[in-house]
Amino acid sequence: MGDYVYSITPRVSNVDRSTKETHVSVQTNIDGWGDASINTGLPFIDHLIVAIAKHSMVDITLIANSNDGILHHLVEDISIALSQSLDNALRDRSRIRRFGHAVIPMDESIASVTIDLIKRQFCTVNLDLTTDAVEGIPCEDLEHFVGSLVQNLNACTHVIVKSGENDHHKIEAAIKAFAVAFRMAASIDERRKDGIPSTKGAM
């Protein structure tokens, strides 16, 4: 049997989300090296997105600015734009492994994420956050950040914090688990010569 060589369309995307509330510019490269250049003005959100890049191996460049000074709007639109860019970069999703899963610890916390990159949106998010804020970001906004990330990915995603006491550790474990699961699901299956990974023939 000879060796097969397949050409893959670069899986990159640029999203510019501009509203009266915010302006977010994001570029992603699914087949990158995990490089990140993030500037949202929110250090903890920057930290979470850098973690997504590092552990998914997706290159991410993201710049965000608030037009109305409302934190909730900025956190939400950052997450929406990032997720839409990942969705766009996946193209038609041919030859991907499709399914991904990860169970990630961070000290006393454990988070589980499972992903099916089928183009049917469904998500469950349970971060089990119990304090008012983490690193200056209200926990309700952090929950919305994760919720918006998985809701706009055009996939079936379950994010569950299984145990933990420290809310910083809980959400960071969840974000890292998402990144590892996404990397697995989005990776190219070298044994799949062509086509969509579904018995339907369509995602």
Rg from C-alpha positions? 17 Å
What number is the mean pLDDT? Answer: 93
Q: Give the domain tally.
A: 1
CATH topology: Ribosomal Protein S5, domain 2
Strand numbers in spatial order across the main sheet? 1-2-4-3
Distance between the termini: 30 Å
Poorly predicted parts: 1-7
Structure description:
- By secondary structure, this protein is α+β, with helices and mostly antiparallel strands.
- It has a single domain, classed as Imidazole glycerol phosphate dehydratase, domain 1 (Ribosomal Protein S5, domain 2).
- 33% of the residues lie in helices and 30% in strands.
- The protein contains 4 helices and 10 strands; from the N terminus they run βββαβαβββββαβα.
- It has a 4-stranded mixed sheet, with helices on one face.
- α2 runs parallel beside α3.
- The longest helix has 20 residues.
- The protein is globular, with a radius of gyration of 17 Å.
- The protein starts with 11 loop residues before the first strand and ends in a 17-residue tail after the last helix.
